[in-house]
Amino acid sequence: MTRHGKNCTAGAVYTYHEKRKDTAASGYGTQSIRLGKDAIKDFDCCCLSLQPCQTPVLTPDGYLYEKQAILEYILHQKTEIAKKMKAYEKQKKLQKSSSQLESKSEEREKVEKFKTRENSIVSKPINPFTTGEPSKSEVSATESSASTSAGSSQALPSFWIPSLTPEAKPTLVKKPSKTVLCPMSGRPIKMNELIPVKFTPIDPNLDRVALLTRQDRYVCAVTRDTLGNSVPCAVLRTSGAVVTQECVEKLIKKDMVDPVSGEQLSERDIVPLQRGGTGFAGSGVDLRAKEARPVMQV
Known about the structure:
By secondary structure, the chain is an alpha+beta fold. It has 5 helices and 10 strands. The two termini are 37 Å apart.
């Protein structure tokens, strides 16, 4: 059997390759693509600036940030929360004043209705020769008044008369939360909870430019193993040193003492460092990206 090219359109079968190519060209349907290593940040890069950190800090959830970038983010979020809270308080005052005006207007309407009813009461002489049933003229008058009131209540608003034009009500501002959330984990973040991180360079004699250009820049503070996205790492809260998870399991957890500072450790003081993928499926990171687009329905 002869081989056919991928772009051959002479076949009677709509192949999977043709379907994928037409879907990508049409602009409809959800697209899925596998990410490579170039699309994933390194383990020592900031989650906001995506650049290697000079003064790195770590959140309790294990996300690494540049100190200046995360502090600017927290201050910006606090100013935005203050603006939203000010708008919410202003809206609350307006609602309170409008409710007071409405209550006063309702009281006035009740008083006016009471006055009109009292003024409409007219004493009539009682005729003993007539029954208490209303006459035909009174019945027709009440029916006509009821029909006019129903017609006025069912009248639609006019778009040509300014007084009858429907108005759009302003959107209500919800009460904002005062807590600043982490941009990666979505959990509350505070300045005093940030952990300073101290990376051990692979060669102390290299300058910063040489460290940035090299593929392997840092090593474990205890075992001197090279660190990377494929190596699970952890940060010790007491000293800020970055060590491998293998070193934590085999050495540190035996006596729970920081090998750099000599202080006693607890389980809370060992924070796993969140790392990116390596481009391979075995890295334990989801490397697929999806884009939801409109779907054609029959």
